[in-house]
Sequence to fold (327 residues):
Amino acid sequence: MSPSYPSSRPRRLRRNAALRRLATQVRLHPADLVLPMFVREGAAEPAPVRSMPGVVQHTVESLRKAAVDAVQAGVGGLAIFGVPSAKDAVGSGGIDPDGILNVALRTLRADLGDAAVLISDLCLDEFTDHGHCGVLRPDGSVDNDATLAVYADMALAQAAAGADLLGPSGMMDGQVGVIRSALDRAGHGDVGIIAYSAKYASGFYGPFRDAVESSLSGDRMSYQQDPARSVEEALHEVALDVAEGADLVMVKPAMSYLDVVRRVADAVNVPVAAYQVSGEYAMVEAAAANGWIDRDRVIAETLTSIKRAGADLVLTYWAVEVARRLG
Ligand code: PBG
Fold:
């Protein structure tokens, strides 16, 4: 008599830890993890970020030490964000070679040589007094093409400071192409671009705005993607960036956009990054602090889900902790 259950029994591979280990298909590795780091101009002490327990705004000195720790833990890269002490309408601090982000990049490059992949945030929002990712027209709208000219100058400053990969995160149309040609014309053909290609206007960026002391009032709906559009729009954005010379593409945020991560991973032949953003971090930390979830287990589960969706690398504020656990 044939059994009433199917002959394939998925539970065979779940029977013990050794079998489960053998059958694992999504394995996290320290090199897949990129650590976003904040460095504040003129800071005397590292300052905790209120809405991101465990994350600080570094001084240049504390950044140097944390970067060495991260490299020793085996993380794949460091994504550096600058918090300037003065902001203006055009974000001059982002272009100034002595601006905090460029100083930090130069310092880390000198400390770490080729042992670390340095990724610079290429966006104006940290440097503008209005908090937008670009420069404004008199009517207050973000001027795409005027912003591109500033991004080109920022790209040259970051390349000169020693960044390996530039991360344009402002969602201006044409940003990758303009940055690529500016780099090439200036002899920075080896500097790459990790394009924030599918970046949504998201409430999950809330804690990040504390971390960079953003002065934004209003929102970024006129340049970042609408979460209510179909995945096809993201694929269009990604295709444009790849055609313009993106070396890697990114989807952001991660967890609420795993369908986008999967479709992008299926569509492109360049590495795909996903950014597990500040709000994703804060939610888990807050629930864990209340004793409502098993923190370490949930962290691992979130990262596994992002990789399973197709991300080759993940930007995560837990990068060092998880890399150490894996190592
Ligand atoms: C823009 C930028 C943002 C984040 C990364 N780059 C903020 C925004 O677009 O409003 C958010 C990252 C996070 O929430 O962790 N420079």
Summary: The beta strands are 33-40, 47-48, 56-58, 77-83, 118-122, 165-168, 192-199, 248-252, 272-275, 313-315.
